[in-house]
Predict the structure.
Amino acid sequence: MNDLQRLIRLRGLNMFSIGAALELDPHSVQKVVKGTRKTPHVQEGIAAYIGVPVEHLFGPGARQHITRLINNEIDRRKRLYEIKLKRQFIPPVRNRLAG
């Protein structure tokens, strides 16, 4: 599994959802994500769907950019999980003035 595949999986996406959103064949999306094809319009669509410039996913410095995106997604998930746990296990403080 390459870095882009990891990012896509971490975000809860798959080739079928990306393909459907971009009106592309999911197998074409899969081949571009795996790196076996370099179809520019598919690369541009994937990058737009993920919300980054195409060179951040497929350019020479893509590995650094994707690693940063993966780290950002992990941090986002940590924050959401922490919020969920706090809501679940820490009761809200009652307003003492309400009496």
About this structure: Helices lie at 3-10, 15-22, 26-34, 40-50, 54-58, 62-89. Residues 82 and 88 are 10 Å apart (CA to CA).
